[in-house]
Amino acid sequence: MKTRFRVLVLFVLLAGILLAACGGGAAATEAPAAYYFDSEAPAAIEPSAAEMAPMDAAGVVSQELAAPDKQTGQEAAAFASSHMIIKNADIKLLVEDTDLAIDRATQAIGDVNGYIISSRVWYQPWMDGGNYKYATITIGVPVDEFERTLTRMRGLAVQVLDEVASGEDVTNQFVDLQSQITNLEATRERIKGFLDQAKTVDEALRINQELANIEAQIEQIKGQMNYLQDRSAYSTITINFEPVLPEIISTPTPTPVPNVWNPGETVKDASKAVTSAYQGIVDLLIWVFLVFVPIFAPPVLILWALWKWFTRKSKKPSQ
User: Fold this and answer.
1) In angstroms, rounded to a whole number, what is the distance separating the alpha carbons of residues 176 and 80?
2) Is the CA virtual torsion 59, 62, 67, 72 positive or negative?
3) How are strands ordered across the β-sheet holding 131-142?
4) Nearest to 185, CA basis, from 225, 214, 216, 221
5) pLDDT higher for 185 or 48?
6) 85-95 and 234-243 as β-strands: parallel, antiparallel, unpaired?
7) pLDDT tens digits, one per residue of 42-67
């Protein structure tokens, strides 16, 4: 009897332990998630002052209340204060010798620590039968040497045929990108704090996905900032070289004279025509009597005599 009572008490204790465990698991399952992107975070998380900053609809912390990196902001302000300007120029030069002009332009580019981006050389025929060399070179030079390089390029030419220069101020664009990075970096730090407080695997995965999206945006904006820095640090100049072509001297076209009717000239032309006709007839007769008659008359007479002789012979028998 005592053994049975002990077994029964043991079963009751085991059942109580199982019920308590199930109740704790259900309470843990029904607990709210620790990952929030609004301002109403649970009290148990105790967010920091930076995390308490208001956020916009995309989950980006406001610049005024977030805790930005002070050193990064100061460097950006100092860099942007110099006015980042992207300068471009396109110049067309008429030169005596294209090869010599290219050599001097290459030397000038090296003097200012520039570089050649692209180049093209070709030949075109001219009316004098020769082929003349043309060239196009695109170069990058430091922005401080932009005007000086243009001046040196003009000195290579006999004449500047065309010149276009432009500039684009990207200072505000660079500052805006820096502000976006500051906000995104603050958001990234806040999300990392949420990741440390994640209680389930699903919460950690969602937080990691959001963290990856924020980091991708940061890298993209940094790439745009690097591009603006590089483009504003080096200006682009396109130089077109055209050779001096020799002048072609053309023969002047004679002015046509109007044909005016002149009866006297007509009479003279007619008399000349008649005279020429008679002269031609006389010349023909001279050729006939002095050339053709002496040559053809003897054979004709011999043939005529033979014909007469044969015709007489043939007539005698018939009589």
Assistant:
1) 11
2) positive
3) 115-125, 131-142, 234-243, 85-95, 159-169
4) 214
5) 185
6) parallel
7) 333 333 433 333 333 333 333 333 33
